[in-house]
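F.,

This is the one I mentioned.
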């Protein structure tokens, strides 16, 4: 289990905490690992671990920096991380709860991801600023990862999300790269094609 952070219930609610006990391995922030205990492993940004599988290639997981809101929010929001997964043929970036900022740009400089799981929704709880990516942040991220399919997640189901998947699709279509955006339908498997193989909008 990859856990961006443990201190907010929209990332780890009571059911999620119960599920932790069933997971064979849990990776999260260092402070989150201390709070959760039970063998949960904490990673600092840019720290990596390798997960081995009985069959197939190993998966390298690298923790990435994240900022859960505007500059200066850290004492209020707490530590947050994202993750990059590499298996030799694919590089998947899971942003975690973050906005677009220099830390995300640095991930793009270090990794040529072909899939980006982008925590979207423009969540707002503390004031007139967003705590997760809004459409502008999503566009900046898509431009920073030009070879990636962008898959927005974590943007529905809670009242603090202010933007929808439709908002993202409209913005991406307006800029001419809507074909790179892949909206998932809960309960249905989705085949993800490389962005470099997709026709341009």
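My design for it:
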């Amino acid at each position: 289990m990859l856990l961006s952070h443990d201190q907010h219930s929209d990332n780890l609610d009571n059911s999620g905490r119960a599920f932790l006990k069933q997971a064979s391995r849990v990776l999260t922030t260092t402070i989150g690992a201390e709070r959760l205990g039970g063998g949960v492993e904490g990673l600092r940004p840019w720290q990596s671990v390798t997960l081995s599988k009985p069959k197939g290639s190993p998966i390298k997981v690298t923790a990435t920096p994240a900022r859960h809101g505007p500059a200066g929010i850290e004492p209020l929001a707490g530590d947050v991380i994202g993750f990059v997964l590499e298996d030799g043929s694919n590089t998947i970036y899971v942003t975690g709860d973050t906005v677009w900022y220099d830390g995300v740009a640095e991930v793009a400089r270090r990794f040529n991801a072909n899939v980006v799981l982008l925590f979207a929704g423009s969540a707002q709880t503390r004031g007139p600023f967003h705590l997760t990516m809004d459409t502008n942040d999503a566009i900046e991220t898509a431009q920073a990862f030009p070879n990636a399919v962008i898959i927005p997640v974590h943007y529905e189901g809670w009242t603090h999300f202010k933007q929808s998947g439709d908002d993202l699709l409209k913005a991406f279509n307006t800029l001419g790269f809507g074909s790179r955006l892949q909206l998932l339908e809960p309960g249905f498997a989705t085949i993800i094609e490389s962005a470099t193989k997709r026709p341009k909008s």
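Residues 45-197 form a domain with the Metallo-beta-lactamase; Chain A fold (CATH 3.60.15.10).

Talk soon.
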